[in-house]
Write a structure and sequence with these properties.
This protein is of the alpha+beta class and 97 residues long. It has a single domain, classed as 2-Layer Sandwich (Nonspecific Lipid-transfer Protein, Chain A). The chain is 36% helix and 26% strand. The protein is built from 4 helices and 5 strands. A 5-stranded mixed β-sheet has the order 3-2-1-4-5. The protein is globular and about 35 Å long.
Length: 97
């Protein structure tokens, strides 16, 4: 799964779910997906802005989590995923994946 496919999936899911109640930055290798869920709807962009929660991982690890080949908790515990900020908001991002 390449970055464009990941970004397209996140954008489609963001339109379907209720606002997440905060801002997220998903850093995938050298690319960024920014999700602003603090308003009436979730808005996805590719700007590198400050966020309430920052999740850093590789595109490969994210694709493995989406496909179910990698457990998100195990990915975090083994350092494949790094989370900074509001952990409660971090849990909500699963609804976009």
């Amino acid at each position: 799964m390449n970055f464009n496919e990941i970004a397209e999936n996140i954008t489609k899911q963001a339109e379907k779910v209720s606002p997440l109640g905060g801002t997220f930055k998903l850093v995938l290798d050298d690319k960024v997906v920014y999700i602003d869920g603090s308003g009436d709807k979730n808005i996805v962009s590719f700007e590198d802005k400050d966020a309430d929660t920052v999740i850093t991982t590789s595109q490969e690890a994210l694709a493995d989590m989406i496909s179910g080949d990698l457990n998100p908790m195990m990915a975090t515990m083994t350092g494949k995923v790094k989370i900074k900020g509001d952990m409660g908001l971090a849990m909500k991002i699963q609804s976009l994946l």
